[in-house]
Queue: 4 jobs
Job 1
Amino acid sequence: MKIDWAALGSVFGVSLVVTVALVGLFTLGIVGLSKRERATEQGGSATLAVSGAYACFALCAAAVGYGIYLIVA
Amino acid sequence: MEHITLLLGIVIVTALVFDFTNGFHDTANAMATTISTGALRPKTAVAMSAVLNLVGAFLSVEVAKTISGGIINEEGIRTEVIFAALVGAILWNLLTWLLGLPSSSSHALFGGLIGAAVMSAGWSSVNGGTVVTKVLIPAIAAPLVAGLAATLATRLTYRIGSRADDKATAPGYRAGQIASAGLVSLAHGTNDAQKTMGVITLALVTGGVLAPGSNPPMWVIVSAGVAIALGTYLGGWRIIRTMGKGLTDLAPPQGFAAQTSAATVILASSHLGFSLSTTQSCSGAVMGAGLGRKGGAVRWSTATRMFVAWGLTLPAAGLIGAAAEFLTKQGTWGVVLTGALLVVGSAVIWGLSRRQPVTHDNVNDVDDSDDRDDNGGAGADTAGTLTAAIEDDLKATIPAQPGASPEPAKTASV
């Protein structure tokens, strides 16, 4: 019986890092977008927050795309 | 398809039935959090999951060449053994569904295979080491890694999101949850539908219809994909309730964190060479998300019941598989009798489920006035009241199924 501890360890590490990074990015995106609404209400603009938000979402979408690639490949 | 014997026909139908139970048993993995947080309406959620499962079944070209991944020695395996294994896996899947407990369909299949193979060819046909590396360690590691990831992710998302108000962030969390749930569904379709294709292909090879090493014919791929999609669409509402509402109360950010963690763990594990079970990952992620929120709590009574079901899956499905193999060994009448017992057993379990039906209409209705630590939500409540009844009914209706009666008794003592 040989247990592949290295593989198990990398599953642990990768899962933790990727999950936290993705959830963090996505939440930043959501918060950024919500700033736009507040800004419009107050008559200002929040260009930086919004473009940051879209960058976050783009990264998340790329991750989902990579996930689909992993499933198909 | 010319030389399909009666036995082979029965095995193919049984494999598709297993695929179907696999579908509705595992809908919860992808969709429980999406449904309980209200990101999607129940019917929409299962429909989406079903479509993605069907798509997933066609996506991958790499079909499982072995059904047990080396757990049992598949050389010279007889068609009856596959049939007996499927009987064990189906009955255990249905029983855990009746009790609303998420348990791994793959483990049920492995258990059935082990039981049937041992009864057929003795203990030497099982590779004990592979059981440890492919079943035991993943079963312990999956909930830990998914749970830890979900806990950290939940904490983070609450910390970052605290600056925005709930109304503005709700649609975002909703979209994120749906995307993660979609990935889990797709991955499930590729993995689990492939498993059934592998079973049917192996049966066709052992039955001499296909040459060894051949790829599954198109009709096998189509029927396996359709069976798992239909099962998914039917929805294992009892399990969805336990996972979405019974284990913990999930708010949209938690549902998002849990589902993302589950999707990541499933994909990372299957591509880094250490496959972790989907069901265990998802349940672990849900509990982790429950613990990650301030004031959040996991209903440990429900969780304990689930852990016990995980522990029992292999031996219980194995016992039923062994009993079924004992019968099928007796000849054609044994095969027919086993088939009849499978039908009767499934009918009894279905009949029992009608006493307290859980459907897409009431899947989220958990009576909050109950002492939940005691009942662990309605899913567990159902489990408690039904166990005694099942025990009686099973004993009365199918006394010839030695494997089937012990587990309800064990579950009752939990």
Note: The radius of gyration of chain B is 20 Å.
Job 2
Amino acid sequence: MAHDNHDDHGHEHGHDHGEMSHLDAMEVRVRALQSLLVEKGYVDPKALDLIVETYETRIGPRNGAQVVARAWSDEAFMARLREDATAAIGELGFSGRQGEHMHIVENSPDTHNMVVCTLCSCYPWPVLGLPPVWYKSAPYRSRAVSEPRAVLGEFGVELPSTTRIRVWDSTAELRYLVIPMRPAGTEGWSEEKLARLVTRDSMIGTGLALDPAGLDA
Amino acid sequence: MLFSSIAGSLILKRAERALVEASPHIPLGDEGPVFREPWEAQAFAMAVALHENGLFNWSEWAKTLGSVIAEDTKCSAGQDYYRLWLAALERIVAEKQVIGDEELHIRQHEWEEAAARTPHGMPIEL
């Protein structure tokens, strides 16, 4: 589902199909232990969130950066990504439960894409990395839809007024990967080096790819 | 709030170093511990927070985790490190009489049931 940049408040994050959630055995054990420790006052959930947030860039394989770097470098791969992103991402050896149902949206000078998510257990973290903590807040989700330009401004992303902003709902059936614009001045770069410019935020559209000048050789 | 200030992040840095030293075979990247899945980071965070709240000291943690790893006949410390880590957490809270086995099992079932009644895409809550 896409929201163009106009008022669109009649927006629901639920899903109307009958499929139910699943937690794997380890997730169940972690949730059981954590919820009991919180209830008994042994840990503060906010402190746990802050600790996890400190490590958010070190969780999961964060395959998406390699996908973006390949897309920038290989026009045929880019075409396959547009056709069937899950299969194309699978070519790089990345697959599995949370890597399914992927769909790419491409940034251009005319269009900037931003993803919001209901943050269910199906968030494609192996591709995108762990979602930032603020991503789960209801105010972020509703404001991203109602005033995306202001939200982007708060992240330090200023776009020309001629750039249209599209906001996409990531769901269990459709998980978006934003392909950010390739920065100028990166001609001839290897995929490995290009991948270093691709941040988690740039793949959910709350940031841009890094400036190559900021990358040490 | 714990860890939210610069001083807090120094506390976390120190706790991380102590925890890494007390945790044999812990998977490390260039910058410290790395996690394959989000639940692994949550399990790591629980150990940090429980220590911070004084439930155990690092040598108790090292002893418990060391025994869990030693008893693991599948030798999965390299493969499946945080499964053993979580088992060590479960053991230490049982030894400290914070959470009993039965209570833990009941709660695990409650989470399974919560997942089963939650439509895909919605947050799972008890």
Note: Confidence is low (pLDDT under 50) at residues 5-17 of chain A.
Job 3
Amino acid sequence: MKHLFRALSAETLKLNRTLALALVFLTPFALAFLEVAIGFEYGRRMYRVGGDAWMTLISHTAMMWNLLLLPLFVTLEMGLLGALEHNNSTWKQLFALPLPRWSIYAAKQLLAMGLIGLSMLALAAMTIGAGLIGRVCLPELGFDAPIPFGMLLQNMLLSYLAAWLIISIHLWVSLRWSSFVLAMSVGIVPTVISAVTFGSDWSPFNPWALPGEVSNGLFEMQPYLGALLLGLLGGVVVACLGCWESSRRDVLH
Amino acid sequence: MEPWMIETRQLTRSFKDTRAVDGLSLQVPAGSVYGFLGPNGAGKTTTIRMLLGLIHPDGGEIRLFNRRLRDDPMGVLRRVGSLVESPSLYPHLTGRENLEVLRRMTGGSRSEISRVLKVVNLENAANRLVRNYSLGMRQRLGLAAAMFGQPELLILDEPTNGLDPAGIHEMRELICRLPAEGLTVFLSSHLLSEVEQMVTQIGIVQSGRLIFQGKPDELKARTRNQVIVATDRLEESQKLLVQQGWKAVHGQNHHLTVPVNGAADAALINTRLVQAGHQVYQLSMEHPSLEDIFLKLTEEQEKK
């Protein structure tokens, strides 16, 4: 385990001054900013009189995030993590160090999961911030009600766990192949497909739709355990396969 | 048993239909600077990647420090530093941060960072971003990374590649100092002239096969001295010398090249030419440079 902690410590240092780290905060900020703008522009139509403004805000944010932004963000973030090594031809040094290769891969996996988790925590905080702006600037929308912290955090946690599968898939693709275009294509195409086909019979089996399926199930009181387990366990399985494959492959570049 | 730092036995690796390394058996003595030479595409980088466990061989065996690499890769690699082709650096980090990444991974001490920065003379630029480094500075930082953790063996792949003459000179001086610190250096190059002054052992590889291994003097001893002769009637002079048993060859720069055994032969050639009425403008004796021998060897192998 000490190898894993060492590698993880080095991975965090590599994030200094990177776009990958900045995006962790910029992406949720962009969504929260959009929610505030929507509130000012269409607030009276979107937030019904006597309705639960906080739940409306949280569910709207969750749908936008889980169906569209999160898969695209994961795609870009993993692509950037891979490019950090490919662009600088650092695999030949990393894998020649006296560390098991799996520990280097696993450290990247943990870092990737940590970054996505951090961005979702930031999104939760910024969603509250957006609601508080509504409370002050648009008092007629109903944001003076208590903040539903439990629901907000539960939604974030469950959709985060369901996103493990796409995190693992994208990390493996971006670490395995040096092409940034390939890494982006593997994310953008399925994300568009999953957004268009969301709610169909096979949507609960589409890795890119799983966070949205879980989040939607939570808000709509529909079963979501299958999608959650598929996302979570699938993520662990793909991560283990990635560790195994990285230990076997030849480093030619 | 000789304490080989690196020993390979019948090492082989193919890529699709191409045999990149073909039955390579290297022996690198401890404390040496071993020049691993060959033209581009000869299999040097593939060999080096196999020595570092980056590529798996199809066949053969690799032993470092008299231990099989595959039996204990972590234990072996802990004692090896490497610089493969271009240095592996993160340009968005400072020089010191790049070494800190290594320190965190390998668990060395912070003072080790300062030590290697001092060795490569980069102390003053340590806190600058690597993206602002010159090529020579990057190469030196790559060498510092290779030396981090005080390895016993340094494996350097084309360490002078892309450097200007001043950078090459600087790198050469650095590498020459390393054996005094107890390091064995294994370095590859496609130019013998670049490493000639550093190496104590040479291995020449061509088409994945080892065609020479030994000391530079042993390589030199493989060829004879030659006399360079320029006369007023070059064609006739050549005929005369050939008739008398000399292997005179008409060179490109209007002179004859004649392999000889020593100064007495040179004097004899002069006498014979003058006695036959030829005017000798120039007569000098020279030994082919290592680079000439290297080129001749690799060309001969290419023709086979």
Note: Chain B touches chain A at residues 49, 52-56, 73-75, 77-78, 80, 82, 84-86, 88-93, 97, 100-102, 104-107, 145 (CB under 8 Å).
Job 4
Amino acid sequence: MNKTVLVVDDSRVSRMMLSKVIASIDASWKVIEAEDGQQAVDKALAETPDLIVMDINMPVMDGFQAIEILRPKLPNTTMILLSANIQSSSQARAEELSVHFIAKPVTPAVAVKALSLWSQENE
Amino acid sequence: MQLFEQALGVLQSGVMILDGNYRIHFINQWLNKAFDSTPDLQGEQLFNSYPELEGKRIHQAIEQAIKVGLPSLLSPGLNRSPLPLYRGEGANRERFPQSIRVQPMQVDSQRFCVVEVQDVSSMIRREALLNQQAEKLNQMALTDELTGINNRRHFNMLLEKELRRSNLQGTPLSLVLFDIDFFKQYNDHFGHPAGDKCLIAIADYLKHQLSSYGYQVARYGGEEFCIILPEQDVEVARHLAERCREEVEQLQIQHPSSQVAQVVTASFGIASKSGKQSETQTSLILRADNALYRAKLAGRNRVIASERLDEA
Amino acid sequence: MNELTALELDALAEIFNISVGRSASALSELTQEPVAMSVPVVHVMPIQRVIEILSPSIGSERLTCVSQLFSGSFSGEAMLMFPENSSLEIVRLMLGSQVPIEQISEIEQDALSEIGNIILNACFSTIADMLEDTFSCDLPKLNVAPISEILEKPEGESVLFIQIQLALESRSLEGYLAFIMGSESEANLQQALRSFLTGVQS
């Protein structure tokens, strides 16, 4: 069965890194990309991805705002926020929205963790 | 080698060396003694002995030194007392403020970390003292030494602020200037210490009566006082000045050499500006001073208001 | 050195975004207050150009500079700079002190060194993580001086220059990160970026 992951980051390098590592771990994942929160909302509503991995700090619309819109509309999607800056206020907000947090920088380990969070939620 | 260890042993600051597993490879006497409870820390794993340090800034700094090779500075302003270190004995025993440096050290292929600790109690105390003194000096620069109310310098600052607000927001502003009648004669009769007491009595009265209204009182010169009434027009100022005049009289301070009464009295001049016109500080003070002069000419112990600028 | 490509600049921008993100969370932990930091743009330019660009907005105000010498596959001097008044405001907001700006003391100076140390170390550790490099560096030094004096370096050195925005209690303050490197180090940095990107692209 084909699964879809939406990778959202304004940094092209981070998107490339995530896409590449996810594809190399499990080729059955179809990867789509977005550069900011607004694009992410549009693409997520059109494609209903199984997993969303999204940066917080982005222009136009940040990761939190996008997740706030998407969470009620996509209850079955696993959502993960990426940030190097995890303060207690943002942690509380993430819990409220039932999204996971992974610390940046994007490394192969981040992609592995994202996929394992998805499988935990979908066992 | 023994010589160096002995030297570190007599040092009046702390040194410890941790290995890659955070085990205390060396700790000097000063530091070991300052740590609470444990007799000898050498060989112990720091975070096993003090689990409360886990995740704290000191832990992160040590981790950064060992894993990434970066040095850190922990300043007493941002981290008052990162390690559980104590000084003094018995009831005087207290955790002391510290300044800490954490530096990586590479020996062959092994990474160590040197933690250097200083007791900065005296620096903190000196700072606190300096801060107190600075605050006192700031206060002193703005209050009149004799009466404890605002001095002329502070009055000028306050008036400037209120004038700007009045000109900007179009609100009225009034200024009352008053002078104790025949004060020179009072001093000559009773002597300067009595004169000072008289000034203090009047200042105390003003302070208690006026501060609750948000009016500012200052000693403008020798026996001259002034009151700033933000957002008040001439009628309110006249009413207030009249009340002050009565109250000064009712303080019943005997004044045998006065030519207007048996007791100390004062003469009042008022200048008000409406919200419509803007006016400079000098002009407002000159008008109040002129009104005061006319109150004296007219026989003292009375209130005279300057004509409004737009009517003059 | 060759001009950096758009992708190489993007990688640098991401490195510094992560660095200031880590710094913000460390500073917030210290002060128990939310701290926000962002990096609008990353530039590589000659040092003279940095002085030209900063001079009009700094004017005659002095700069507060925390610097650390570093060496690794590329070496040089890393600096965090704020206009003097902003630096004093930062330290006052962080320490919650009421002391007037003219009376800044040893404690405030040490605190400024530490703030600089936290931010610069976050940059080094992020570079180390992402480019798989290691650095050794000195403890921070604090210096308050006119811009021309702070950036008085040998001709031909170039600067990795990053404007940063620091938000504390509804105040937003602008500062600058500068990594001053000789041409050889600059080429080594580019090389490290390239091998990082090869790993990402393939």
Note: Chain A touches chain C at residues 11-14, 16-17, 20, 57, 83-89, 104-105, 107 (CB under 8 Å).
